[in-house]
Amino acid sequence: MNTWDVVIVGAGAAGLFCAGVAGQRGLKVLVIDHSSKVAEKVRISGGGRCNFTNRLLDAAAPQKHFISQNPHFCRSALSRYTPQDFIDLVQQHGIPFHEKHKGQLFCDNSAEDIIRMLLAECQAGGVTIWSGCAVKSVVHTDAYTLETDQGPVQTPSLVVATGGLSIPKIGASDWGYRIAEQFGLRLVPRRPGLVPLTFDGEAWAPYAQLAGLALPVGIETGDKKNRMHFDEDLLFTHRGLSGPAVLQISSYWADNCPIRLNLAPDVNLPERLQEAKLRSKKLLGNELASLVPSRLAEAWVSQDTALQRTSAEVPDKALNKLAQALCNWQLTPTGSEGYKKAEVTLGGVDTRDVSSQTMESKHPGLYFIGEVIDVTGWLGGYNFQWAWASAHACAQAL
Ligand code: FDA
């Protein structure tokens, strides 16, 4: 029998990182991935430049940037392996990087630099990687026996690092969730997160023409008790809304609930429109175009004939309604672009069945790391930091 100290299924961010650390601790490690290319999500992440961590992750309260049924679960791992720890590793490998926005760190050159680093760390730990190899079944007696395309393998420690469901065309699968169920662990329902939102039907028609327009906005969802707010950029698409603002809010959005947008967060729109009414002889549309992007101004003014006049001629009521509509635009998405466009999967293996110290599940010797667990980060490098930190916690415990 082909026997290993550790078998890790999934050669993505968490799996490769865990393998390198465990291998360098002297363990005999095998990583198996059904895709022919490893770490495909790292490759496409951050627009090809991999936003590999976030400097603003708060080590004292890391849970504020993460969503989980138990928001405190991630705290132990994230405070034991911090963004600075990963930055140190990136620097040891001589990878140039820069900070972009709100603490987000990106490679200067390419996400390939991070993949090369992960593989070099694996090589330093003598890790064996089988890519293009499917695992057909897992049984547990004294040890775990995996039936694979390359024959049976046996291990006392099986680490599941198969990630979430997003982007199935590059290898995402529900394997990790099925293994959790097979061994009696609970699952939190899954849904796409960090995903563009869509709007169907007539009501969206006036805004479809805005596809391609990007602007800074305030965005929120939820009621008074659970209100979530972000100040980020919005992007109009043919089917709805995207951009960082919408990706962030999508992880908090519940079906059939409205989102609220302030399309002019940096100006006091009611005041500026009243001023324009008192002094300007220009068409209201032209005045509005000096306060918000002109395509946006045109889309709003074209919907109401009362607004298609000089500023002085527009009735106060119509002016106030316009200001309100732009500063507190309420709309209810009809859906999302789903897993084919989502960056992450919310939900997953229930943290009640996993140790926050070691990532070992209630089934002895069976570990879960990375996105397959019910821990989802905000946009901005938080998901990779969770992958690194949970992998590191696990590798220390193996
Ligand atoms: P990951 O998905 O990385 O790896 C899972 C591995 O398991 C894959 O190699 C897969 O082939 C393999 N696998 C799946 N099923 C299997 C099976 N049945 N048998 C064998 N192997 C199997 N995050 C961030 O922090 N910064 C960023 O810039 C981005 N950008 C980004 C862009 C896009 C387009 C996406 C889709 C996602 C991001 N993310 C991100 C999110 C980030 O990529 C994600 O959270 C991590 O890759 C999760 O790491 P894991 O190792 O858990 O899964």
Topology:
Blueprint: E1 2-3, E2 6-9, H1 13-24, E3 29-32, H2 40-44, E4 51-54, E5 66-67, H3 75-80, H4 83-92, E6 97-99, E7 104-107, H5 112-124, E8 128-130, E9 135-140, E10 144-148, E11 151-155, E12 157-160, H6 175-182, E13 187-193, E14 197-198, H7 205-208, E15 214-221, E16 228-236, E17 240-242, H8 243-250, E18 259-262, H9 269-279, H10 284-289, H11 294-301, H12 316-327, E19 329-331, E20 335-336, E21 344-349, E22 366-368, E23 376-377, H13 382-397
Parallel strand pairs: 1-11, 2-3, 2-12, 3-8, 12-22
Antiparallel strand pairs: 4-7, 5-23, 6-7, 9-10, 10-11, 13-21, 14-17, 14-20, 15-16, 15-18, 16-17, 18-19
The site of dihydroflavine-adenine dinucleotide has 40 residues, from helix 1, helix 2 and helix 13.
Total number of helices = 13
Give a quick account of the main beta sheet: strands, pairing sense, barrel closure: 7 strands, antiparallel
Poorly predicted runs are none
Strand content: 15-25%
Q: Bound small molecules, which ones?
A: dihydroflavine-adenine dinucleotide
Arrangement of strands in the largest sheet: 19-18-15-16-17-14-20
Helix content: 25-40%
End-to-end Cα distance, whole Å, is 21 Å
Content-based structural category:
alpha+beta
Rg from C-alpha positions? 25 Å
Written description of the protein model:
With 398 residues, the protein is α+β, with helices and mostly antiparallel strands. Helices cover 30% and strands 24% of the residues. The protein has helices at residues 13-24, 40-44, 75-80, 83-92, 112-124, 175-182, 205-208, 243-250, 269-279, 284-289, 294-301, 316-327, 382-397; strands spanning 2-3, 6-9, 29-32, 51-54, 66-67, 97-99, 104-107, 128-130, 135-140, 144-148, 151-155, 157-160, 187-193, 197-198, 214-221, 228-236, 240-242, 259-262, 329-331, 335-336, 344-349, 366-368, 376-377. Strands 19-18-15-16-17-14-20 form a seven-stranded antiparallel sheet. Strands 8-3-2-12-22 form a five-stranded parallel sheet, with helices on one face. β16 and β17 form a beta hairpin. α9 (269-279) packs antiparallel against α12 (316-327). The longest helix is centred in the last third of the chain and has 16 residues, at 382-397. The radius of gyration is 25 Å and the shape is elongated. The relative contact order is 0.19. The model has no long low-confidence stretch (mean pLDDT 96). Dihydroflavine-adenine dinucleotide binds at residues 9-15, 32-35, 38, 40-41, 44-46, 50-51, 134-135, 161-163, 166-167, 171-173, 175, 343-344, 370-372, 381-384, 387. It comes from Limnohabitans lacus. One of its GO terms (molecular function) is oxidoreductase activity. This is NAD(P)/FAD-dependent oxidoreductase. Its cofactor is FAD. Residues 191-344 form the RsdA/BaiN/AoA(So)-like insert domain.
